[in-house]
Amino acid sequence: MSTQVCSQISEALVAGKQDELLNHINSALEQGVEAEQIMNEGLVAAMDAVGQRWKAGDMFLPEVIRSAKAMTSAMEIVRPKLIESNVKTMGTFVIGTVLRDLHDIGKNLVAMMMEGAGFKVINLGIDLEPQVFVDAVKEHKPDILGMSALLTTTMPQMGEVINALKEAGIRDQVKIIVGGAPVTEEYAEEIGADMYAANAAATVDKVKQMMSVA
Ligand code: B1M
Fold first, then answer.
1. Exposed e or buried b for every residue in 122-133, given b needs 16+ CB within 10 A?
2. What is the CATH number of domain 92-213?
3. 94, CA 20 to 30 Å: which among 8, 34, 174, 207?
4. How far apart are CA 97 and CA 74, in angstroms?
């Protein structure tokens, strides 16, 4: 039954049918399906499919935007449930999407998974100047700073943020994790980040591992 409702969630999200999507999610939650399963098997799977279809030319920009908007509404329902499943605070995590990059679905998933794993999460948003990251590190004193970039043209901004942190004399006060579709382990190393994660679940694993040895 849970597999069936996750497929219905996926189908509604790919089709950008927001009302239908929210109904399926609510009914899955009523049936006792775990929020994590809804997210991984329903929502993330659907957004992967959207990405592949767009790449293949089977979906057009307005359709992709419709799915992205539906995803944002779905996350509003799923986020509190994920957080409920793990309430203790593991540390503070600040995350944002770098300058000139508007992609936030993956970044928000990472934020949600980190909240679900028990971290206090400060989600700064998108299209952020390096100084915004610097100010957030000064203000919130996070254990970890996360940056997301989805465009090859915006990836270098992650290095700019690291340089700005160095200039402000606070680079050593925070561990940095980077990710996003075009980002690689090698790139993370090249710009001086501490960690790279390929997806939201890997982010949680790597950060937890880092916190346990810190
Ligand atoms: Co954009 N876009 N987009 N887009 N978009 C991509 C990224 C692209 C690969 C599509 C393509 O051409 N095949 C391409 C980038 C090419 C490149 O640079 N290599 C692209 C382009 C070109 C563009 C525009 C330039 C298009 C245009 O206007 N001509 C434009 C740029 C706007 C801008 O940012 N300045 C643009 C716009 C948009 C929309 C607004 C329409 C929409 C974004 C809506 C939103 O985010 N609110 C959009 C979307 C939806 C996509 C695709 C289809 C899907 C992205 C997504 O949400 N994936 C994408 C194609 C693709 O990725 N296959 C594409 C689902 C999400 C769950 O995955 O974001 O990868 P992802 O996040 C994952 C991991 O990457 C990782 O964990 C996440 C969850 O597992 N992760 C991290 C992400 N951040 C992390 C941070 C971490 C750790 C892991 O640590 C902190």
1. bbbebbbebebb
2. 3.40.50.280
3. 34
4. 20
Q: Is the CB of 81 under 6 A from ligand 1?
A: no
192 ligand 1 Cβ < 6 A: no
- If one residue of 73, 103, 148, 174 were mutated to test the ligand 1 pocket, choosing by the most ligand atoms within 8 A of its CB, it would be 103
**Shortest-distance atom of ligand 1 to CA 61:** 41
Edge-to-edge strands, sheet with 120-128: 120-128, 92-98, 144-148, 175-179, 195-196
| CA 196 remoteness from chain centre | 13
Is-above-0.85 flag for pTM? no
- CA–CA gap between residue 141 and residue 139 (Å, rounded): 6
Q: Where in the chain is the domain with CATH 1.10.1240.10?
A: 2-84
Q: Ligand 1 within 6 A of 108 CB?
A: no
Q: Is 125 a pocket residue for ligand 1 (Cβ < 6 Å)?
A: no
**How many residues are present in the chain?**
214
Q: Which two tokens stand for residue 47?
A: 């957004």
pLDDT tens digit string along 162-214?
Answer: 999 999 999 999 999 999 999 999 999 999 999 999 988 789 889 989 888 66
| Integer Cα distance of 44 and 66 in angstroms | 15
What is the best residue among 150, 154, 205, 206 to mutate for testing ligand 1's pocket, by most ligand atoms within 8 Å of CB? Answer: 150
Classify domain 2-84 at the CATH superfamily level: Methionine synthase domain (1.10.1240.10)
